[in-house]
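ok trying again, last paste got cut off:
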Amino acid sequence: MAHWISEPLDALLEKAVAFITDTAYQAVAERGRFTLVLSGGNTPRALHKQLAKGIREERYLELGYKLPADVRRCTRDPEVIVPPWAHTLLFQGDERYLPPSHPDSNYGMARETLIRNICVKASNIHRMPTESGNPQADARSYESLLRGLFRKHASDDAPPSFDLILLGLGDDGHTASLFPGDHKSLDEKERWVIAIDAPNGKPPGMRLTLTLPVINEARNALFLIPPSRYDFARSISNGERPELPAGMVRPRSGNVWWFVEGG
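nice, full thing came through this time. structure:
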């Protein structure tokens, strides 16, 4: 099911943080952990910063959420609640094949805007590897990591079911690092993580990405959209552009949330 939320930026970020926080506590209550996949690019920067700050309890309740019994509070301000970072596992949806120190690294952006500002265990941060010089091998390595963390038994080959995958939308309709016209990647059914060459990417070059079978197994997929792509996102959410990678995001038994800056 698709959900559409459109607000000016500050209100949109507040609603997104409240939703993510509630989703996290529900996941921990039901499964003992919250599995969150981060997106790349520049759009998530503001969300990351707001997520690290948390949300005021009063506003959280105003938005219709119930306060969890084991709620975590900001040490600097007890009126602010934060997600259960100690029980959160962080992953990446895609990564440019660059060192983490590179200005265009998705992980570098996430580290700067979110990870360094929250109390998440180092062992629970699972970034995509980009050091071996062999993107295909690094894709297989990340897939092996996911299989070890999510597979219930050795014969289980079902894709992982992340609690929440954060996604962006490119002006060409790409999401994660799945690009229009790349039929081999879009038609992938077996692999969970692949290496792709993105000549039209910004910057162009090799990337690692989760595949559609993994994205569509998520319990929730959340697109965060800037105002410049409002109409484009609306057409995709309405099912008018099913040929685009973003239009192919249809979780099998989960929800798609469109948080779109507007108004």
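cool. The two ends are 24 Å apart (CA to CA). The chain has a mean pLDDT of 95.
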